[in-house]
Amino acid sequence: MEQNKIKQLIAKALKAREFSYVPYSHFAVGAALLTKEGDVYSGCNIENAAYGPTNCAERTAFFKAVSEGVKEFAAIAIVGSLQGEEVSGYAAPCGVCRQVMAEFCGPDFDIIVARTTEDYYMKSLKEMLPESFGPANLA
Ligand code: THU
Fold this sequence. Notes:
Blueprint: H1 3-17, E1 27-35, E2 40-44, H2 57-66, E3 73-82, H3 95-104, E4 110-114, E5 120-124, H4 125-128
Parallel strand pairs: 3-4
Antiparallel strand pairs: 1-2, 1-3, 4-5
The protein binds tetrahydrodeoxyuridine.
């Protein structure tokens, strides 16, 4: 992926993080999901007093896109850190979100885990979720 595109995607994840609803963990996560068409769906984590209904930022972004008929994705940028602070560490996607990625994305889908627009690493879905169970198993 082109460096400038990566930076733009991270900037959108940082913006989405500002909308996180995290009264329980205070851990604010933002994600920006790039479609193969070049559109971006952003997402934040949304917590719940019953804890279980909490939705991660990545899944918020995926579900927004899929619910609008979009199912072809190229990359996702993710930023997460304590609310009200600059992003200080890398927040890799949880296992549930990796499984949702495996539902809609191929092995070469790019996952960008960032602290700032300049400071990030990128791995493929295949690297983040090897030997996955997916739609092909049920085909
Ligand atoms: N969280 C995400 O949004 N994405 C992840 O991949 C890991 C965890 C959220 C869920 C919860 O609101 C908070 O971070 C602490 O776990």
